[in-house]
Inverse folding.
């Protein structure tokens, strides 16, 4: 297939390329300017993530079965070895039928993450394997409580990273956001669902998405508490809980581009920075990374 939806006047070098070849270009440029890349499988069918809970379609195993899912990840792991890509966010917001640790191989996301993650690591042992929590009713991908009893075990040690998405009322009116104890109840919700993983030193936790458009008065309060939390204030006493040498949670903000349900760091002109958002998140930014060697010129061909 050939890409569309691209301004070829501004990006003439992308014209006529396949989506995979466009991604080659993006990843190579990211390496040149010091950005690291995490690949994310956001949906099976194009822009269909809201209707997809499992990582495969049980009714269409030939096109969208688990083995196809694994094969595609392995292809990417080989293609982008020794590049700016540092890991694989295996599946965006498992939800619906997705379970964790109930003993059903058809729905247990933790077991599938092991199968997929180990196949990736067999092809590329350098990548991080990022595993999101399962959907907790309205909180898609936010429930990592099952890690306590059923952690993800991989063939390469210290490669699993658990991940959550966290949003305010702009995305969904969660009960804890409208509870009379808000915002003092927030850290209890966060600690119960994923914070304990960090506090007990089980594994790293990466916040794959968070953001707000400040449509509700409580959004400002939520973001202030959230940034303090990812910076290491895990309790309500106002004291940072990080020990010497420890860092807060790693994260990526949703999103840099304007539009969507929570807007972006950039305004509609794609140039102006939204300073209201940056004023909150600037304290949690990581330092700049060194540049990376460009991806190899010769890439393994895709199996389709």
């Amino acid at each position: 297939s050939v890409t569309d939806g691209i301004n070829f006047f501004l990006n003439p070098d992308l014209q006529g390329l396949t989506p995979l070849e466009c991604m080659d270009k993006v990843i190579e440029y990211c390496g040149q300017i010091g950005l690291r890349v995490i690949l994310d499988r956001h949906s099976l069918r194009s822009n269909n993530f809201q209707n997809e809970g499992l990582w495969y379609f049980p009714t269409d195993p030939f096109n969208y079965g688990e083995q196809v899912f694994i094969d595609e990840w392995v292809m990417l792991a080989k293609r982008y070895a020794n590049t700016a890509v540092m890991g694989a966010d295996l599946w965006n917001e498992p939800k619906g039928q997705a379970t964790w640790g109930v003993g059903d191989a058809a729905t247990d996301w933790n077991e599938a993450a092991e199968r997929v993650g180990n196949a990736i690591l067999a092809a590329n042992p350098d990548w991080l394997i990022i595993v999101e929590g399962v959907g907790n009713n309205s909180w898609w991908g936010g429930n990592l409580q099952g890690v306590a009893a059923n952690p993800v075990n991989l063939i390469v040690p210290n490669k699993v990273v658990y991940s959550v998405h966290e949003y305010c009322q702009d995305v969904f009116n969660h009960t804890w956001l409208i509870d009379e104890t808000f915002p003092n109840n927030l850290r209890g919700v966060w600690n119960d669902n994923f914070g304990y993983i960090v506090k007990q030193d089980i594994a790293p936790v990466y916040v794959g998405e968070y953001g707000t458009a400040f449509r509700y008065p409580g959004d400002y309060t939520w973001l202030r508490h959230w940034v303090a939390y990812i910076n290491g204030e895990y309790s309500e006493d106002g004291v940072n809980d990080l020990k010497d040498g420890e860092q807060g949670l790693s994260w990526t903000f949703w999103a840099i581009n304007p539009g969507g349900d929570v807007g972006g760091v950039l305004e509609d002109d794609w140039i102006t920075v939204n300073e209201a958002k940056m004023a909150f998140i600037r304290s949690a930014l990581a330092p700049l990374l060194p540049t990376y060697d460009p991806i190899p010129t010769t890439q393994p061909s895709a199996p389709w």
About this structure: The longest strand covers residues 160-167. Residues 296-304 have pLDDT under 50 and may be disordered. Residues 11 and 119 are 35 Å apart (CA to CA). The chain has seven helices and eight strands.
